[in-house]
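Q: I have 92 residues here and want to know how they pack in 3D. Can you give me a structure?
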Amino acid sequence: MALFTLYWANPAHREQPLAGWMTLHYVAHSWHVPPETVITAARVPRPPDGGRPPHPRTLEEIARAQGISLDQLIARLQKAIAAAQARQPPQK
């Protein structure tokens, strides 16, 4: 838990440009949006029990599985992130 907190306290890990190596939860943490925002935008189906997939896939793996380019997936995620942030109250 301490390592998680220290990692995300570092400003270098916040709002990082989206890249193929990132997972959806990494993107959600980095951009301070609910994980459901990026999961829905990525169009990744949930397991039948509603939980997380057993193996977190990277954006590159997700794009490849959907037959789209990484750039197309990133554009979709960026649009969803911007919309989610527009709905959030300003941070103090």
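Q: Anything worth noting?
A: The chain has one domain: 2-46+54-87. The mean pLDDT is 84.
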